[in-house]
Design brief:
This protein is α+β, with helices and mostly antiparallel strands. Helices cover 54% and strands 19% of the residues. It has two domains: 1-131; 133-371, PPM-type phosphatase domain (Phosphatase 2c, domain 1).
């Protein structure tokens, strides 16, 4: 009986246990669901946060891009303004350059016109100077074998030569005026004028007397007093008077010496240099004026004598770009003096052309050679 009475209790216990088991299962399910909900909520929150960060980043990038675009726009605007300003400046510069170019061309035309006029005037002065120099036909009447090497540095020359015949004598002059070009040419015209006057008025002109009178005339004409800073214009000159009957040369020189070469039994080219007085025709400073010296040189057939300015010797050239120098000139003359004067002149010209090359001529050149 007791076993039968205990059955309900056992069923109740089993029911309770079943209920408890079901409840545990439900609780577990609920816990799992709650965990899953928390995970879902966390994921949603995480995604929302990430989206928010991306939106903020995108917004920041947009703002930065907008700012960059604004800066670029501002830069472009500034550049456009600078470009417009430069365009205006360039336009003004172009106008100014065009004006300057036109003005320069106009000035160039004026300078060219003036240069042409000056050159024409100098060319005309050359014609005048050429007329005053002895004509070749006249020289041929009074000399048999001679040459005149005459090479002005500019159109007109400060060097000049002068010849005439008087009292059965031939007077030969070589002169080198201070300066070259137009200033030298004016001095040469003065010198030629004085020579004509002096020789014409003297029945028996003497070389030293001609130089003395030339110096007096130059000093008076140029109003030279010997004071400091005064003009030092004047000229160097050699005068040779050939006395054919008495076979001698009367010579006087102002800074231009005479070179005579002759063939003798002792030497095929004996060189005789008659030195000039070391003073010019003119008054340079407070120097004391003394008469020029007269020299007599006996001559014989075949002799050659030369008078020349310093232009040939002072010309730069050669491999070392040095002056030609008097030593080389006298050496060359010694080697060629036995040739005809025409052949000598050709050698003298060619030698200078080769020596000078492309260099500029530094001074007027003059050399007169006469064979007895």
């Amino acid at each position: 009986m007791m076993l039968i009475s205990q059955l309900p209790d056992i069923n109740a216990i089993e029911f309770y246990q079943s209920q408890m088991k079901s409840m545990k299962t439900l609780i577990i399910i609920l816990i799992i669901a709650l965990v899953l909900m928390c995970i879902v909520v966390a994921v949603i929150l995480l995604l929302n946060k990430k989206n928010k960060e991306e939106r903020l980043k995108a917004k920041k990038e947009i703002e930065e891009n907008q700012l960059a675009n604004l800066e670029i726009s501002q830069m472009l605007s500034n550049k456009m303004q600078e470009t417009e300003l430069k365009d205006r400046e360039l336009g003004e510069t172009k106008i100014d350059l065009e004006w300057q170019t036109e003005n320069a061309l106009r000035l160039f035309d004026e300078v060219e016109t003036q240069k042409r006029e000056i050159t024409d005037s100098i060319e005309y002065a050359k014609k005048i100077q050429s007329v005053l120099l002895p004509e070749e036909s006249f020289i041929n009447e009074i000399l048999n074998d001679y040459f005149v090497f005459f090479r002005p540095r500019d159109i007109v020359s400060g060097d000049f030569y002068w010849l005439t015949a008087k009292a059965n004598k031939t007077i030969v002059v070589a002169a080198d005026c201070t300066g070259h070009g137009v200033p030298g040419a004016f001095m040469s015209l003065l010198g030629i004028t004085f020579l004509n006057s002096i020789v014409q008025n003297e029945e028996n002109p003497q070389a030293d007397a001609i130089l003395n009178q030339m110096r007096d005339n130059i000093i008076k004409s140029l109003k030279q007093t010997g004071k400091e800073l005064e003009n030092r214009d004047g000229m160097d000159m050699a005068i040779c008077i050939i006395d054919w009957e008495n076979e001698k040369i009367e010579y006087a020189g102002a800074n231009i010496s005479l070179i005579l070469l002759r063939k003798t039994s002792k030497s095929p080219h004996e060189l005789i240099e008659v030195r000039a007085d070391r003073m010019p025709i003119g008054l340079f400073g407070n120097e004391q004026l003394v008469p020029f010296t007269r020299h007599y040189i006996p001559i014989m057939p075949g002799d050659s004598f030369y008078i020349f300015s310093d232009g040939y010797c002072d010309q730069f050239g050669g491999a070392e770009l040095k002056k030609f120098k008097k030593k080389n000139l006298t050496k060359m003359l010694s080697e060629i003096h036995s040739l005809s004067m025409a052949e000598q002149k050709k050698i003298i010209e060619n030698t200078m052309d080769e020596w000078k090359g492309d260099l500029s001529q530094v001074d007027d050149m003059l050399m007169v050679g006469i064979k007895i």
